[in-house]
Amino acid sequence: MMLKLENYGVSLVDFLHFQRKQLQMMLKVLMLILLSYFGKAIPVADDSLTKKLLDTHHCYLLDCGTEIYVWVGRSTNLEERKAANGAAEEHLRVHERPKSNIIRMIENFETVSFRSKFDSWPPLSDVVASKDGRGKVVA
Hints:
The N and C termini lie far apart (74 Å). This protein has a domain at 29-115: Severin, CATH 3.40.20. It has helices at 12-27, 78-94, 112-115; strands at residues 31-35, 41-43, 59-63, 67-72, 101-106. It is of the alpha+beta class. The radius of gyration is 20 Å and the shape is globular. Helix content is 27%, strand content 18%. Strand 3 and strand 4 (67-72) form a beta hairpin.
């Protein structure tokens, strides 16, 4: 029995276009993008992804195909962080990927799935959280 796409309201051209897009997303190599202070997206060229590529004074996009990570350095300001979120949304819009997920990361609070995208990530050290506000109770 042969499946007829026309019976489902889908043309062969539309089906092949969809399949090509899906294949491109699956084969997509991870791409690390530095977001400059001027709103420009600059691909980070390197043979392998390591944590050393991430600078605390910048924001980055890590494009993984089905998801895009926004990594925010601890020394960035609010305007840079807002611009990074907007850049991630624009990146997905330009690449016609409305169903991809945007996942936000803050330096030193990266998830296991984010760290697993890198070839080299040093072992986690004990991160000391800020003690501001501890012990202060409002009655």
